[in-house]
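Repro:
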Amino acid sequence: MDVNGTLTFEQHQETAEIIIPIIDVEGHNAVELSFQVTLFNPKNATLSKANALVTIQEVQAPAPDAPFQDTSATASSLLTLVWNPLNWAGVPETAPELAYVEAYAVRAKRTDNSTSSWETLDGSASLNSDDNWELRVEQLPTYSSWIFQVAARTSEGWTAWSASSAVMRTKAVCGDGRRQGAEQCDVGAGEDTAGCQSCVTLAGYSCQGMAPDVCEAGCGDGTRVNAEECDDGNNATNDGCSELCRLEEGWTCDLDANGQTTNCTTTCNDGIKAGTEACDSGSLNGQGHGCAANCTMTAGAVCVADEAGLSVCQVCGNGALEGDEVCDDGDTTDGCVACAAVRDGWRCTGGDFATADTCTAGPDTPDAPTGGGITADSITFEWRAPSGNGKAVVNYTLVYFNPEAPSHTNASVVSGRQVTLSGLSSDTQYQARLNACSMVGCSSYSVNSLIYTTSAVSAYSEFANLADSLVSDPTRLVDGLNASITQIELETPDEPAPEPAANDALLNSSQYEDYLASLNGSDPELEGTPQPTAAPEVQDYLGQPKIGFRSASVFTNNGNPSFTVPLSFANPDANGGVFVQTIAAGGVHFEVREYTARRGVDFNISNGTVNFASGATGA
């Protein structure tokens, strides 16, 4: 796959996103791919990561939008659904035909029947004059409620179902003997009566029965007859007995011995605001949410009634997220402003009807940093900028540590989104976490990063670095030795003997000594003879505390390609003698130089660790 293009950075822009369309025409399987991104001829720009992890999205056509109701084409047994054509914004430019819809499917579920389940409908959708798709759903029950979903079929198969529509309801039928919807009465047979005309109850009548209604005169005369639920002697509303002589919600009316209405009162705590009640939140009354146990509002409360008459109350500062409050932390911080907004630079989270928000100053918690550019003594960490919640992030604190000793941490404060940690130990594991700070506060720390391991170094580099470091700063504390070094001496190796020829015989010790003594001359008979290893000399330095080590001439052959360089630690006493100073257990990682013999014979000395056991003076 070859993708190319031009990416332009605006002034002051630091980062940019490259969106690469990828399509697997055969399968459309959502997978993650790792591929190389290269910048050609960049101007004042660099690529922070050569390898980008790309998550492929929209490899399948999306679900259609939810359908909606055409109210102008709704009847007692008919609903007309309408939905927009499928919109696949991410369809590959090279395969636009993938967005072509071959067919639509519609399924329905009745909402006024608890046992109803989804059922796929028969019928074909068609385009209307607005270029939207529509489907007429017929033979539905009168005044029934439904929700619908739509799916589309492309050449690659069916999409997911859309979101559900809003509730749609067929119309009530006046005259069918069932009082439904906005009908005040329905006496059936399609005929009006003296008390019910066009499904509206006439003044002075009451209609009861429901299937069908029976209407009687006398509503409001104070005498309750069969068709009346109550009759308080008037045609007023909101007094318990309505103008239709029906009990109003939230009220109870007493009856005398003759069955006549005598007294109507509201019922506090039933969840219906009625009469003189200032509020009624039902079981929440008296629980600190704004409505008291006697249906009066507490100080600072704001209450509104929902469709069922239940009071929905809120009190700013009570530590409960209520009504239309944006936040409520119980007035414990400056982050929540009058429960209507979160102050710039703050974040408020965790609040609900029973729990106060936790508001903290500062940016969001950043993601864990990622490492790269690893060498033997450095790792480069970088991270994405978190939201500052309305305030700019001014710096980050990155804490790094060896996961084998997580309590021993180091910190680095940076203003950008990248830092290179140097001076690290080679071949050592490191992890990092970070927080972000704005002018109003700091975030919590991120989770720990993955574990990154610095590179192992060659023997030459590490030993040379150790020697250079000691020579340049003799007073530094050597890790693992617990001693200050005030003097260091190095000796170059003596010139090694020439490499023996492969076909020469071994020399005895006497012959070997004679050979060494004759090195100033030339003895072709002895050249190329395999030579034994000579042990180096151990040098103990007296005077100031010091580490002593010295290289001697070392001769090797193929059968014995190694040798040992001992190190020693000494410290003088007050009388000039030498005593043993206890040295903390530990080791110095080192490398030794890679020398080339003058006669062209190369030999390498591998890296290692000098370990001083507790109390030891040599290793």
